[in-house]
Specification:
The protein is of the alpha+beta class. It has nine helices and ten strands. It has two domains: 170 residues, Nuclear Transport Factor 2, Chain: A (Roll); 140 residues, Nuclear Transport Factor 2, Chain: A (Roll), CATH 3.10.450.50. The protein starts with a helix and ends with a strand.
Length: 320
Amino acid sequence: MKKIVSYIVMIIIVIFMLTSCNLVTMVTGDYSGLANRNFNALITAMENKDKSAVKALFMDSTINSSENFEKSLDELLEYYNGKMTSYDDVSSGGEFVERNLFIGKRVFMSSYFVVETDGDKYHFDITECVFDSLNPGNVGIKSLYIINDKDFPDKDGYYHGDYKNTEGINIGKYAEYSEDTVMSREKFNNLLTAVENKDKDTLGSYFSKNAVEKTPDFDNEVEKLLNLYKGTHKPFNRYTGGGSVYEMNDWGTEYKYLDSNFYLETEEGKNFYFKISEYLINEEDENNVGITCLKVYNQTSDVNAEIDMEAVPIVVIGAE
């Protein structure tokens, strides 16, 4: 019995040693410091062509679930060239949490680094797990994206890989926009087409039944939207905006909604900011499928100007 107890205690001590640094980080909130330490360990292992050391930095679940992990590891060591001369901690240690009945609680952090070597320049987008309540030893890199600067066209932007956050090692993958952003832009463009065509019926069809019923004067607000500007809007650019899709499953009830924010510039020189919330799926209340809230604000001609969310919107349909 004593041997069993001693064995259990030993396992607990080992797990604590493996995760203590991460637990301290969770208490202090210094995710940026942890991200930088881990990144330097990764670069050192890569430059030493130490395959085992690089592999040890990944989550066990990622290694086990990724197709051809060993092959992609070899490709990573071949892709990265030279010795690091400097690196830019552009954005490190952004924290987010996942919770559900099956995985318990997991704490992740995301980071973006730009590295210059004596031979090349690289962009890294890394997501790593720092805490797993059901499997304390399952910490490390979940997804690693790397691209050579020569293959990265958006020199002024951040590198987000292909926005899919695919587990494992992803080399040279790039997408200008996430699929969520593309979808929200398509939907927003359809809404603007109805506005520009003065098509009240089509415009009204984009809103949920609840939004129609809860808007004190729905027809009047739609008229405001139809008369917001004359002519057409200017083409979207990378600063215009986009959206994010969120999915939930609460005790078997599925929800999927899209939050979008757009800066709009029209051909006649007017500028607006749109804030839109929309349910794509709501199994609990089908009357809530569609746009649940749309707000429009006047905006300056400076696309980067901070939005005054305390300002009174000029159009309000639905409720948040």
